[in-house]
């Protein structure tokens, strides 16, 4: 029920809604009373069954579904305020992120084109992996259509924060939940958990090998899940949980701006009119071997408000533990190669 002065239920589109991430994500979105219409799209006809199943849930969100045969992306996207994109092929045993990108890049470019055409003002959350490379594909395609807004396009990296929180609590169960910042990128050694954000000076009292174990587990937790599922999928449930957690942060920011609506996300650093971006780029130069080159993309805590990103919280990089400083330096060396893959793909698309 919407009344004057209250939050108007948003139209949210999930692209890839019948997949391993899309289904549980859609379930959590249906449970959100701030979602007024939930539009499900998939190339698979099974999305109709997903929609029927969800439509029986006793929450206000109206459910609709589309495939290429009944209106496709045009109907799914038109009027959407938020677009969540878990579409694409999941990583399988023995598959590198480079292999994955070769498959998913074309899918992402096609979807970005549709978003540019049918919901150019939407806030877009990119879940499709490898995020370090797929987000630049979305950025460049949206730029090509003249609708790119750096405040409203996010690579979802929340699973890294979720994992860091989980694994740290196994050795420090007394710590508060949900406060760890994870910066950098969303794969391997580009993932930099800033454990000092919750441990503070206590970090020096925790044995180095335990800190390293938490970091490694966070960076390569996805491989563990793929192995455990034995070819049956990747991190679908935890990813859906993390994506919904981040979406709620963004949505609540639209509802009522406050400093509490903070989440880490992988963003394009091109728009220096966003509060904190120029400071962040300046800080990142100090971690790079070539300090004359700016980082183009980076995952960083952001404050969200009515219009998307209100502020980039660069301060978390100002006082790092020496081990974290080493990790950021490694990230700044590795990450450009990841996002350049996306930029290179779009040059010939």
TrEMBL record:
Domain of life: Eukaryota
Record-listed substrate binding positions: 91, 97, 129, 163
One Pfam family, short name: Ldh_1_N
Documented EC number(s): 1.1.1.37
Single Gene Ontology BP annotation: malate metabolic process
Gene Ontology molecular function, alphabetical: L-malate dehydrogenase (NAD+) activity
Gene3D superfamilies, A to Z: Lactate dehydrogenase/glycoside hydrolase, family 4, C-terminal, NAD(P)-binding Rossmann-like Domain
Cellular component annotations (GO), alphabetically ordered: cytosol
Top EC class of this enzyme: oxidoreductase
InterPro entries in UniProt: L-lactate/malate_DH, Lactate/malate_DH_C, Lactate/malate_DH_N, Lactate_DH/Glyco_Ohase_4_C, Malate_DH_AS, Malate_DH_type1, NAD(P)-bd_dom_sf
Domain Lactate/malate dehydrogenase C-terminal: 157-345
Sites where the protein binds NAD(+): 16-22, 42, 104, 127-129, 239
Residues at the catalytic site: 186 (proton acceptor)
Catalytic activity: (S)-malate + NAD(+) = oxaloacetate + NADH + H(+)
SUPFAM superfamilies associated with the record: LDH C-terminal domain-like, NAD(P)-binding Rossmann-fold domains
Occurrences of domain Lactate/malate dehydrogenase N-terminal (ranges): 11-155
Binding partners and assembly: Homodimer.
Name of the protein: Malate dehydrogenase
UniProt lineage: Eukaryota, Fungi, Dikarya, Ascomycota, Saccharomycotina
């Amino acid at each position: 029920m919407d009344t004057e002065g209250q939050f108007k239920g948003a139209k949210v589109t999930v692209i890839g809604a019948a997949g391993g991430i899309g289904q549980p994500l859609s379930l959590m979105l249906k449970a959100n009373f701030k979602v007024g219409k939930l539009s499900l799209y998939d190339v698979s006809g099974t999305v109709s069954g997903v929609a029927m199943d969800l439509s029986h849930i006793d929450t206000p969100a109206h459910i609709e579904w589309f495939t290429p045969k009944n209106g496709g992306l045009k109907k799914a996207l038109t009027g959407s305020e938020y677009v969540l994109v878990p579409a694409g092929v999941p990583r399988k045993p023995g598959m590198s992120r480079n292999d994955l990108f070769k498959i998913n890049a074309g899918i992402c470019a096609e979807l970005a084109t549709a978003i540019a055409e049918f919901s150019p003002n939407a806030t877009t959350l990119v879940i499709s992996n490898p995020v370090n490379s797929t987000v630049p594909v979305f950025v460049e395609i949206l730029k090509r259509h003249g609708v790119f807004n750096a405040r409203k396009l996010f690579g979802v990296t929340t699973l890294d924060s979720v994992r860091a929180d989980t694994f740290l609590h196994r050795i420090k169960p007394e710590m508060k939940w949900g406060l760890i910042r994870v910066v950098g990128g969303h794969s391997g050694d580009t993932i930099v958990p800033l454990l000092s954000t919750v441990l503070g000076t206590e970090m020096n009292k925790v044995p180095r090998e335990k800190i390293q174990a938490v970091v490694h587990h966070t960076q390569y937790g996805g491989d563990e899940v793929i192995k455990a599922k034995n070819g049956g999928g990747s991190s679908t449930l935890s990813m859906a949980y993390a994506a919904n957690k981040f979406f709620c942060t963004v949505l609540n920011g639209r509802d009522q701006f406050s400093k509490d609506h903070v989440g880490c996300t992988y963003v394009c650093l091109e728009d220096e009119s966003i509060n904190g971006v120029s400071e962040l780029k300046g800080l990142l130069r100090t971690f790079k071997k070539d300090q004359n080159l700016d980082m183009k993309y980076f995952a960083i805590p952001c404050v969200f408000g009515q219009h998307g990103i209100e502020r980039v919280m660069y301060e978390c990089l100002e006082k790092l533990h020496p081990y974290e400083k080493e990790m950021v330096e490694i990230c700044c060396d590795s990450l450009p190669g990841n996002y350049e893959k996306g930029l290179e793909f779009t040059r010939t698309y």
